[in-house]
Specification:
CATH class of the largest domain: Alpha Beta
Distance between the termini: 106 Å
Oligomer: single chain
Number of domains: 6
CATH topology of the largest domain: Rossmann fold
Largest sheet: 9 strands, mixed
Radius of gyration: 37 Å
């Protein structure tokens, strides 16, 4: 045995009891993991077993060539020992805090301007402090807490090669270590509040079930454990993997990966794995499956560092104790089979009384070993999804499915689809939603691209969690909604009521569902708006629309932040099909559209409407109208896009147009491919329909003739047919006139657009499907009317007379 080894053994023998020590592998020694030691790696088992001076001396005596230094674990394992490891700038540190370093044992090395000072942290602070990495302060020192530090023996040299190999020396009395100075404790307390510290794992000691706890609560418990468990360096891949497996067992989300990654990244001996700017945890995380390693392992390791669960706050300590007791009780008492639980849970869904159903679901959950009805509802939802068995298919199966994207309001509200509208408080978000509800509930035509398009009448379900009954009632009255409108309102809604949502959609079969608001209906969420998990219920709505419940359009109302964007995590935006932002008009816009108008801009659209605008306007009778906002190019006062130009030409073509005719039209423009794609998009959005007819020039072939879908066409099937006028008088199309049919059968004309910029359309021949009546009149026996219809009597009128009649109609509604 060499002289150095004898000196090392002599130092080890005089070490005081009560510390957690470790023999240190010499630089270049082969570790159990197959890697080579860098000269500071402790014996693997010292991470899990508290080794006293005698244990360390035994290992060094057996393998003096392999172990040539001794280290000590800091933290609670060594009664609150902390090491101030000064890597550089020692003179500067002494100048500032030199008096506080006096009396502390110190470890020296051949590296100049460097040293390690040993202190104690009072036991009352053990759960409130954290170690500090070398790069955290930039001051040239790190604070070892929960990690191991070499205190005597072979020095491997600095990692940059500037300091040669040598020997660690020791000065001072290990039996008389002073309390850490206040400035050091302050830094450690401050670091404790900034994130996750080191972490580690062994094997499963006790299987615990946190499935019915809030994920946010579970994450907080995991974070508390990781703060006290030391990392084990690059030679401990097995330990590293088990840490990730344990976290994944109860938190298999991005949040769980973040916790594991933070723990891994803070271990300095893993720095090489992170040097390329990639996260080594990500690929391994994807391979994890639930198995024997659980959170019980993590808790066991934390208890080794800080016995008595002192690493947990008092509240979280009670949560873990409840789960441990509940797990034992569940194993002893559960006798109901899975099939029986599902059968009884489904039967309870048929109860009419929601209070009775909730009571009996909770009782069944407790009987089956679950904490509450929430866990049982999630189980039932998973079973329903499994029974569908259509979430795993090849592309052929998907293409064979009868799936069609339809529109509740053509080119505006897709079905199935999820739309979010956000705006500042009081700007009119709810009023916009109720106005859309009115159009759907009554089948009122809607102005799209400057003309009225039909809206299929359907039921509306409003799930409110943001306003009182008085406020909702007042807003409904402002829109002249009445008790005969097919609208159902549910107060106090919660987005996490998945099963109840499915049941309500199946029962009421609504075409439109309004949830007002995202925040107001998320009161029971464990997450704040800035965390990705907050958007979980919205992802669920989008993914299951048309699968777990009948397809519908879901409109989510949300609040804007101070900068005008929507509040909270961007995951909300990712989850929905469209994002609408509502704001007050600018000073320039007020001159054109009026102060009482709100501008709605479509910020995101999966159907290609991004950038489009809507206008919500309060009219003189204090009712509201909502319409598409058509903007023109300044140069030509015509629609800027090929899609809008094709739509404009079809709207003024009573006999329709073929693709070839549109391509030849100089006012339409565009290539053959562009016109074909424009027709495809307009057809998909419900604004255009087509009919097959023989080709006028090529015998034996067919051609599609395209027609614009307009609200006036809906009445054609109700009108008696008459011979076509011998003279087709051209008139200018009136804009913004539609029909509203109340439940009593009375007719109500909707007001023409005054704030909307009119598309300057060419002269147009009367529509071939129009009713042969005179100019519009509201009559008790009339079923429809159309400003674009032409009769023989009208053909005798002069253009001036027609212009006067149209102007009179507009004045009537102003």
């Amino acid at each position: 045995m060499s002289q150095k080894s004898q000196e090392l053994l002599a130092f080890v023998h005089q070490l005081p009891q009560g510390g957690a020590y470790a023999p240190i592998y010499v630089k270049g020694a082969h570790l159990h993991s197959g890697k080579e030691s860098k000269g500071k790696t402790p014996l693997e088992k010292s991470h899990h077993v508290v080794m006293g001076p005698g244990d360390v001396a035994l290992q060094i005596a057996r393998k003096p060539v392999v172990f040539q230094a001794v280290g000590v674990f800091t933290g609670a394992r060594s009664n609150g020992l902390v090491i101030l490891d000064v890597d550089r700038n020692l003179a500067r540190l002494k100048k500032g805090w030199g008096n506080t370093l006096n009396g502390a044992p110190v470890v020296t090395s051949t590296k100049s301007n460097a040293a390690k000072y040993l202190f104690r942290v009072p036991e009352a602070l053990w759960g409130h402090v954290r170690g500090i990495g070398l790069s955290d302060t930039g001051a040239g020192y790190e604070v070892l807490w929960g990690r191991q530090g070499v205190i005597y023996g072979a020095y491997p040299g600095s990692s940059d090669g500037k300091a040669p190999e040598g020997h660690y020396g020791f000065e001072g009395d290990l039996n008389n270590i002073p309390e850490a100075p206040e400035w050091l404790l302050a830094e450690m307390r401050d670091a404790s509040g900034k994130g996750v510290s080191d972490g580690g794992f062994i094997k499963n000691r006790k299987a615990l079930d946190f499935s019915d706890r809030d994920p946010g609560e579970v994450a907080e418990i995991i974070q508390s454990a990781l703060k006290v468990i030391p990392g084990q360096g690059a030679g401990s891949r097995d330990q590293w993997v088990k840490v990730g497996m344990a976290i994944h067992s109860e938190l298999p989300t991005d949040l769980g990966l973040t916790l594991w990654s933070a723990w891994s990244a803070e271990d300095p001996e893993y720095s090489d794995d992170w040097s390329k700017g990639t996260n080594p945890c990500e690929e391994v995380w994807k391979s994890f499956k639930r198995g024997s390693v659980s959170l019980g392992t993590l808790f066991w390791m934390a208890d080794q560092q800080m016995p008595g669960r002192l690493w947990l706050s008092e509240d979280l300590r009670k949560v873990v104790a409840d789960v441990e007791g509940d797990t034992t009780l569940r194993i002893r008492n559960v006798t109901i089979s899975y099939a029986e639980v599902i059968k009884r849970a489904k039967e309870l869904q048929d109860l009419d009384n929601p209070a009775e159903m909730a009571h009996r679901m909770n009782a069944l959950a407790l009987e089956a070993g679950y904490r509450d009805a929430g866990a049982l509802e999630r189980l039932l939802i998973s079973q329903i999804q499994y029974e569908q068995r259509d979430d795993d298919m090849d592309i052929g199966q998907l293409l064979e499915k009868d799936l069609t994207l339809e529109y509740l309001i053509p080119d505006l509200m897709p079905s199935p689809g999820v739309v979010m509208i956000h705006g500042a408080g009081g700007d009119g978000k709810s009023m916009t939603a109720w106005t859309l509800a009115k159009h759907v509930a009554r089948g009122l035509p809607f102005s799209i691209r400057g003309d009225m398009v039909p809206v299929k009448q359907g039921k509306v379900l409003i799930l409110n969690g943001d306003q009182s009954e008085v406020q909702v009632k007042q807003q409904m009255q402002d829109l002249d909604l009445n008790g005969n409108d097919p609208i159902r309102v549910v107060m106090g809604w919660d987005l996490n009521w998945y099963l109840r949502f499915v049941k309500m959609i199946q029962k009421h079969q609504p075409s439109l569902v309004i949830i007002d608001s995202i925040t107001g209906c998320s009161r029971g969420s464990a997450f704040d708006e800035n965390r990705k998990e907050f958007a979980g219920p919205i992802y669920w709505l989008a993914n299951n629309n048309g699968r777990l419940f009948p397809a519908c359009t879901i409109l989510l109302v949300h609040h804007s932040n101070k900068s005008g964007g929507f509040r909270g995590t961007t995951a909300i935006r990712d989850a929905v099909d469209e994002v609408w932002s509502l704001r007050k008009p600018s000073e320039k816009e007020v001159e054109e559209i009026g102060f009482s108008t709100r501008v709605i801009r479509i910020e995101k659209s999966r159907t290609g409407r991004g950038g489009a605008k809507l206008l919500l306007k309060m009219l003189e009778d204090l009712t509201f109208e909502l319409k598409d906002y058509v903007e023109m190019t300044a140069e030509s006062a015509t629609p800027a896009s090929i899609v809008d130009r094709v739509l404009t030409r079809l709207r003024v073509s009573p006999t329709g147009r073929t693709q070839g005719e549109l391509h030849s039209d100089p006012q339409c423009g565009g290539s053959v491919v562009a016109i074909r794609k424009a027709l495809q998009r307009l057809t998909a959005r419900g604004l255009v329909e087509s009919a097959v007819e023989p080709h006028p020039e090529k015998k034996g072939t067919k051609v599609n003739r395209y027609f614009a879908v307009l609200s006036r066409d809906m009445c054609s099937s109700k009108c008696p047919t008459t011979p076509k006028s011998s003279v087709e008088q051209e008139i200018v199309v009136g804009q913004g006139v539609g029909v509203s049919q109340h439940s009593e059968g009375d007719l109500e004309a909707s007001k023409p657009s005054q704030s909307l910029r009119s598309v300057e359309l060419p002269k147009v021949v009367g529509h071939q499907k129009a009713c042969p009546t005179t100019l519009p009149s509201v009559d008790a026996d009339s079923e429809c009317w159309d400003t674009n219809s032409v009769t023989p009597q009208e053909t005798e009128r002069s253009k001036a007379e027609i212009d006067t009649l149209i102007e009179d109609a507009r004045s009537f509604w102003s």
